[in-house]
Amino acid sequence: MPSEFHWWGVDTQFTAAGDDASVSAISQINQSIVRECLTAPGEYVWAPSYGLGLGRYVGRALTADKFAEIKAGIVSVMARQGEVRKQPAPVITFINDLAGLVAVQISYTYAPTGQAVTLTIPSNSN
After folding, report:
1. Do the Cβ atoms of 68 and 93 come closer than 8 Å?
2. How far is 118 from 126, CA to CA, in rounded Å?
3. Does residue 117 carry a pLDDT above 70?
4. Could you tell me the CA-to-CA distances from 42 to 39, 51, 70, 105 in Å, in that order?
5. Mean pLDDT throughout 35-48?
6. Spatial separation of the C-alpha atoms in residues 96 and 111, rounded to whole Å
7. Beta bridge partners of 91
8. Amino acid 5: pLDDT
9. Residue 9 CB partners (closer than 8 Å, separation 6+)
10. How far is Cα 110 from Cα 50, in angstroms, rounded to an integer?
11. Which of 63, 64, 70, 59 is closest to 104 using CA atoms?
């Protein structure tokens, strides 16, 4: 079932007819993953435990323990996505750019079609 297009940090999108744009399938799952990863815990009033809060790590030096904490949180987010295949498990990779910033790359399989998907959450997504 399609839902409203709502990519993190992007204004509401509209169709040529002026209706709210909708999204489904892989785009919908990707938007959901990014939204949960970047929403701070307690920020969503109706579900206080929702959100991983990756933005709190931006601009900070990260220890191995913090990387493990982030990875565990993303694994938990991915486990709640019904259309993400559990086997093989999603792969979370940290990517350093030339400036020393870290992005998160998530590779998973879209269960309805078996399609491999790679989603990158850039380091400037706070």
Report:
1. no
2. 20
3. yes
4. 9, 8, 17, 25
5. 92
6. 29
7. 107
8. 59
9. 125
10. 22
11. 70
Convert the pLDDT of each residue in 58-67 to its tens digit: 878 889 999 9
DSSP assignment, residue 54? G
CA angle at 22 for the pair 29 and 41, rounded to the nearest 5°: 45
Q: What's the CA dihedral at 80, 82, 83, 86 to 10 degrees?
A: 70
Domain boundaries of the chain, sorted by first residue:
3-121
Indicate yes or no: pTM above 0.90. no
Q: For residue 106, how many other CB atoms are within 10 A of its CB?
A: 22
Q: Which helix (H) or strand (E) holds 108?
A: strand 102-110
The CATH architecture to which 3-121 belongs is Roll (3.10)
What one-letter code names the amino acid at 18? G
Mean pLDDT of the chain: 86
* pLDDT tens digits along 42-77: 998 999 999 999 988 887 888 999 999 999 999 999
